[in-house]
Amino acid sequence: MNNEENIALYAFRTFGDTVLRAAYACCGSFAEAEDITQDVFLLLHSKPMYFSDDGHLKAWLLRVTVNKCKNLKRSFRVSRTGSIEAEDITAATYEMVIEDESLLRQIEALPEKYASVIYLYYYEGYNTREIAQMQGKSENTIGSLLRRGREKLKLELIKEGAL
To answer: Whole-model pTM?
Structure first.
């Protein structure tokens, strides 16, 4: 990282798509995911921090993203009125969405505690120790969430005839 370059700008150029995909996986709405992504990078810009390496920066960004998604789901607007849009996926959105959209939809349908862990593990490539640090939980808890999430996902896929 170039020390003279703004940390938020560097982070956005390097991890912007990753943060957007994580937000989309957690909240299921592209518009909400864009808003959360913007909030994450504005937070980093307004309160610059020191990160030892890119891995530390990426972990911080994803942790803040997951927390903002949780806050959104707890908000009055979402809990009482639903999402701000009926999802309208454009061609540009398809490029952002992970290849197997039906599987991603099944993951999104899982309870958030399972969906976020499965997404971070399988789509972002984090191990259970790293996810535990990001979410402030123990490694054993993350392992249990992964196992239970896989079981729930498998049952849903069997129910739909995908397995």
So the answer is: 0.57
